[in-house]
Amino acid sequence: MSEFLLETKNLTKSFRGFTAVDKVNLKVRTGHIHALLGPNGAGKTTCFNLLTKFLEPTAGQIFFDQQEITQDSSAQIARKGIIRSFQISAIFPQMTVLENVRIALQRKTGLSFHFWRSTQKLNLLNSEAMELLTEVGLESHSKELAVNLPYGRKRALEIATTLAMKPRLMLLDEPTQGMGLEDVDRVTELIKKVSAGRTILMVEHNMKVVASIADQITVLNRGAVLAEGNYQEISNSPEVMQAYMGTEQVQEVLA
User: In whole angstroms, what is the distance from residue 58 CA to residue 50 CA?
Assistant: First the structure.
């Protein structure tokens, strides 16, 4: 396996003259948590959409494990092991927690769309599903309907379904967005836990979350890379803090 699992070279996306992502060179080191930061409109989610081919790049290249994937489809990229979560929790609300994970596990069996399969056949996946629920702390909620879970636990369930697809690279888009402090802390610890032996690229606004778990940070502003480094290096950059949140909040966030 290469040192950098994901690389982009001059990755660019323009919309009718507006450049949302501007010649971004990104290197995500294998086995690390890499955070993508920036103010609203900086191009973070557009980058995710380019990496997963929800959008086609205007220019530039994308490499995964040293192989170019720029021309690959979304399905091909997912099969290579680049698995993404979204800002809005993507679960089946009227299924149980266990059933949600079991649906994700069906992918590797080739039965993903065989919803007529007998319960007995699907029950063969229950043991592995429970292992994943235990990993994210949801084993005691396995029989609950997903709709009834608190928001933070819905995020944990989404992480479990992501893990069920055996990701080589997890893309987490705003995993703590809209959460209270207790849920933020729980999900932050969960991300740290599941990162063992895995590579994660995450978009996150909460600087305290990033400070506690990110190995490397790339800051975007107006679609371009403004700075890169670890948290200490980033937090000492006045340009970064000004671009990210405005000078009046710098001391509060870094405290």
Answer: 10
pLDDT in tens, 99-115: 999 988 886 655 544 55
Give all domains of the chain, ordered by start, each with its CATH number.
Answer: 28-56+71-81+168-255 (3.40.50.300), 91-166 (no CATH)
Which DSSP string corresponds to 10-31? EEEEEETTEEEEEEEEEEEETT
- CB 187, CB 179: distance < 8 Å: yes
Note the maximum CA span of the chain: 60
Walk across the sheet containing 67-68 and list its strands: 18-29, 4-15, 59-64, 67-68
Distances (CA, A) of 88 to 154, 158, 211: 10, 10, 23
Q: How far apart are CA 183 and CA 246, in angstroms?
A: 26
**What strands, in cross-sheet order, belong to the sheet with 169-173?**
82-84, 169-173, 199-203, 33-37, 216-221, 224-229
SS3 call for 16: coil
Q: What is the Cα–Cα distance from 88 to 175, expressed in whole angstroms? A: 9
From residue 47, give the alpha-carbon distance in Å to each of 39, 43, 44, 70, 214: 14, 6, 5, 13, 18
* Mean pLDDT estimate for the chain: 87
| CA–CA distance, 164 with 107 (Å, rounded to integer) | 9
Gap between the Cα atoms of 220 and 202, Å rounded: 13
DSSP state of 204: -
Q: Cα angle at 164 between 161 and 167, to 5 degrees?
A: 105
* Spatial separation of the C-alpha atoms in residues 39 and 57, rounded to whole Å: 22
Predicted TM-score (pTM) of the model is 0.86
pLDDT, tens only, 121-170? 667 789 999 999 999 999 999 999 999 999 889 989 999 999 998 899 99
